[in-house]
Q: What sequence folds into this?
């Protein structure tokens, strides 16, 4: 199953009633998010009770002095949610950020861009 593109939803001065979707799990699958070089985009992950924890992997395609920079992993505990900032290191050659999830039972996600201040 291919990666699923998350639509980046813009928060404005009045806030945002975000739309969430269920991600896909397994290596090589997951989500893509349009890369934001202004660093205002966040992935909001909700773990509503399927597994504890859900491990979210943000894939890093970069190297430093010939060595791979490790992917970033974030644990989202059962019954909690987490805003994860999307950073420059996650930008792939196709100008997308790749995200993978180890479990997706009762997990929903949304990509949100915050307003500039």
A:
């Amino acid at each position: 199953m291919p990666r699923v593109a998350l639509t980046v939803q813009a928060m404005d001065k009045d806030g945002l009633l975000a739309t969430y979707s269920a991600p896909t799990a397994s290596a090589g699958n997951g989500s893509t998010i349009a890369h934001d070089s202004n660093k205002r985009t966040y992935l909001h992950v909700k773990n509503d009770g399927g597994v504890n924890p859900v491990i979210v992997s943000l894939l890093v395609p970069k190297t430093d002095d010939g060595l791979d920079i490790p992917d970033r992993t974030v644990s989202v505990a059962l019954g909690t949610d987490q805003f994860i900032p999307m950073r420059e290191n996650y930008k792939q050659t196709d100008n997308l950020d790749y995200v993978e999830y180890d479990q997706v039972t009762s997990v929903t996600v949304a990509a949100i861009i915050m307003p500039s201040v």
About this structure: The mean pLDDT is 92. The longest strand covers residues 41-47. The CA atoms of residues 47 and 107 lie 5 Å apart.
